[in-house]
Structures are given as C-alpha cells and as structure tokens.
Amino acid sequence: KGPDMPSITAAFARAMRDAAGTLAAEAGAPSPATPAAPVCAADAGAEDRLSDLDYFEEIERFRASHPDPAALVFAYAETVRSDDLGTLGLAMRTAPTLRDSLRMVERYFRLVTDNAVYRLEEGEEAAFFAIEARTDPHPALDFRNECALAGFVRNLRRLAGDRLGPECVWFRHPGRGNRERYARALGCPVRFGAER
Fold this sequence. Notes:
By secondary structure, this protein is α+β, with helices and mostly antiparallel strands.
C-alpha cells in the first residue's frame, strides 16, 4: 500500500465477517472462518488497516456468497459498534448533544477511513447527514453504503435510544431488496434512487 492509497480500518471488515458468521450459524451453514467460506483479510495477518480495494473485494465476496444480502446489511448494523472505532467512537459517545456527535463523526471519520466522508448539512427545517465516497467506483460501493448507513443508524439508536433517529434514509442507487424491509430494519422510510 502506498501512502496515498485510500484505506479503511480493519474493524469494518471484522464486523462484516462476524455478521456473516452470525447469519451462517443461524442457518446451520459453514462459518466465514471455515475453508468453505470467505476468509476475512483482517484476520490473515493484515495491518489494522486495509486498502479500500481489499476491503471492497472482501465485502463483495461476503455479499455475493450470502443468499440474502439485505439480511447481511442488517446483521452488519447490529455487529458494528462505535466502541470498536477508537477515537471516533469515543467522540461520538461523549459528545453532549446529537449535533455535536454528528459533528464529531464528520470530523473524526477520516481516522477510520479516507475513502468516504460524512457531511452534516443543517437547514431551517431539517438536517441532512450524508456519506460521500472518496474513492474510485467499485461494484461494492452500493452495498458498502447500505451497511455504513444502517450501522450508523443502529449506533445512533444505541446512543440516543429510539427517541432520536433519522426521519428518512435515502440511497442514490436503485434498491436490490424490499424497501419496506429496509424501513422496518432502520426504523424510518427508506428511498432508493434518490437524487440527493
């Protein structure tokens, strides 16, 4: 990996491996740690960071090998925890307000990856919190975005409880799954193919 190559914390890859393992165990299928299933690069002696290409290929292998990618998105959201994100997680948990917590994510997310940024836009009636890719196009980006936002919403609800959460989640890409299923899992309406 060169110094200018985008990278991502291995914690996200381990969370995907653990989510896939949980779903496999529930289905009585081989665990991702067995030779019959994909192996997590984060466990193969890799540094604490993976190149974005290695990460995207890794999550794409998990997605492609799973019969229900939407279930994998939701399992990932349950598995990834702000506690595993070092300074970023601490900043999120200790911020005095939701706005401050979102600003901490905006500021410190670059510590866990430089292939995406979160951006908070505050308007008079609503605020928008968006993830923006900072990497070359890859087939796994739509899946990554679904996992990232589902994980973010789940961690937000862990911090603030059900009293706070998004009013809606929008994805620019077309949906591959049942929109109502995503809405139930995220606790708010979900829109695919959004312009914003």
